[in-house]
């Protein structure tokens, strides 16, 4: 184990660039220009490797990074390097299970540096999760004895178990979990959906929020909305995850957020899940282009709205073709017309293909490239059977290009919530009559 952890402290020039959030040639310039830049300590398959601890010290001492900012990224680098030896389907479940185990065990370190660590963790997991709905299987199957200590380091660097868990979810692509990111939204769009849902105001108004995602995946949108609530506000969550492994991960994610077990339900069958919802946030499941059609998407949207109770809100991310020019006499055109005349649809935001990338000053320091959507999207904002007295939440500010130069509104501008981020480049509000 000692050897493996020593190896994890080595990094290539490309990895140094990712850690420092610069381009690869910048690192070459640093080596050439500054005599104090650390020298490589070994070579692997023709690639020079550097002591990661010395690199971090140099970046901090020269003012190129803050230690508190960079320590967490170094832990991610460690996990990515060591985790490359594990199957991609194993690493994320193991990491999140260990973080959740630590959280539910009073946030005590997992590795106390005494013999019998793995057996003790398995016994602990069985006590905490006797029905094996959360983490027991993942802990029982764990063979990498270095992983608990690495998780402890990540939690300390992230200042909390929740911070560590969300950090893992942010960089899951880098850790090899591409299968968990097939429908992943740009973080800016996640924030926009959470702002439009306005869960905090609803909780203040109604005393609680009943939040549902019928296509939750690994619960990114649920986490984004839950993160807008205060600790004193009551949250009930229902997540529908068709994949049992995603369902287990979602339970861990909610548990680490301290959502009481009696206040959340994670199921694989969505039937009936919308009946008591007050807020629905979801992304319609991705379909390949050859299987996708506006009619299918609009039917799915309609199916979501029908069971909702009076005054409930639904923010649905759908393919852009739901806002495209349609034959008004065709199936899709007729269905969209019915939706728009029902009074339920309050706004539609058209988002172009390949969402605008994260601006350099807000890009994650881990060096991960932000994901873009395969095609354009649209966010449908719906308040089914909404009483006329209920208005959209705190709509006061026009679209602003403050963060996203080039953001535009339609010819009849609709306001955007003051609490939400500016829309991505070329996003535009679409008045219903334009559809």
In short:
This protein has 16 helices and 13 strands. With 435 residues, the chain is α/β, with parallel strands linked by helices. Helix 15 links the parallel strand 7 and strand 8 (313-319).
What is the SS-derived class?
alpha/beta
Pattern of helices and strands: HEHHEEHHHHHHHHHEHEHEEHEHEEEEE
Order of strands across the main sheet: 6-5-4-7-8-10-9-13
Measured between the Cα atoms of the first and last residue, the distance is 61 Å
Task: Specify the number of helices.
Answer: 16
| Rg result | 24 Å
What does this structure look like?
- This protein is of the alpha/beta class and 435 residues long.
- Helices cover 39% and strands 13% of the residues.
- The chain has 16 helices and 13 strands.
- The strands form three sheets. The chain has an eight-stranded mixed β-sheet with strand order 6-5-4-7-8-10-9-13, sandwiched between helices.
């Amino acid at each position: 184990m000692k050897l493996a952890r020593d190896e994890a402290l080595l990094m290539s020039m490309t990895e140094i660039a990712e850690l420092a959030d610069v381009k690869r040639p910048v690192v070459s310039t640093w080596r050439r220009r500054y005599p104090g830049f650390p020298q490589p300590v070994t070579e692997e398959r023709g690639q020079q490797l550097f002591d990661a601890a010395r690199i971090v010290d140099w970046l901090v001492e020269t003012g190129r990074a803050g230690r508190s900012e960079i320590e967490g990224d170094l832990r991610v680098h460690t996990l990515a390097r060591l985790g490359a030896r594990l199957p991609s389907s194993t690493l994320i479940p193991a990491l999140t299970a260990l973080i959740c185990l630590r959280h539910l065990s009073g946030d005590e370190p997992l590795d106390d540096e005494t013999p019998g660590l793995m057996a003790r963790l398995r016994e602990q997991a069985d006590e905490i999760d006797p029905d094996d709905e959360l983490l027991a299987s993942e802990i029982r199957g764990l063979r990498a004895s270095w992983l608990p200590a690495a998780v402890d380091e990540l939690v300390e660097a992230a200042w909390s178990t929740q911070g560590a868990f969300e950090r893992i979810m942010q960089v899951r692509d880098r850790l090899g979990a591409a299968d968990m990111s097939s429908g992943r939204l740009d973080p800016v769009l996640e924030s926009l959906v959470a702002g439009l849902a306005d869960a905090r105001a609803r909780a203040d108004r109604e005393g609680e929020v009943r939040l549902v995602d019928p296509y939750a995946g690994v619960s990114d949108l649920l986490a984004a909305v839950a993160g807008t609530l205060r600790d004193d506000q009551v949250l009930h969550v229902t997540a529908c995850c068709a994949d049992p492994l995603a369902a287990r991960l979602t339970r861990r994610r909610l548990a680490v957020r301290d959502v009481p077990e009696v206040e959340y339900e994670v199921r694989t069958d969505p039937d009936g899940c919308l009946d008591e919802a007050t807020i629905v946030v979801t992304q319609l499941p991705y379909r390949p282009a050859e299987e996708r059609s506006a009619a299918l998407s609009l039917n799915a949207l309609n199916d979501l709205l029908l069971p909702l109770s009076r005054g409930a809100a639904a923010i649905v991310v759908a393919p852009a073709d739901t806002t495209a020019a349609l034959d008004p006499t065709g199936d899709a055109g007729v269905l969209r017309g019915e939706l728009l005349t029902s009074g339920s649809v309050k706004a539609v935001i058209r988002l172009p293909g390949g969402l605008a990338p994260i601006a350099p000053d807000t890009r994650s320091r881990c060096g991960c490239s932000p994901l873009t959507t395969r095609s354009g999207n649209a966010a449908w904002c719906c308040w089914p059977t909404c009483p006329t007295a209920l208005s959209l939440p705190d709509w006061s500010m026009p679209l602003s290009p403050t963060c996203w130069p080039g953001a535009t509104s339609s010819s009849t501008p609709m306001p955007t919530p003051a609490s939400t981020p500016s829309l991505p480049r070329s996003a535009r509000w679409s008045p219903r009559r334009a559809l």
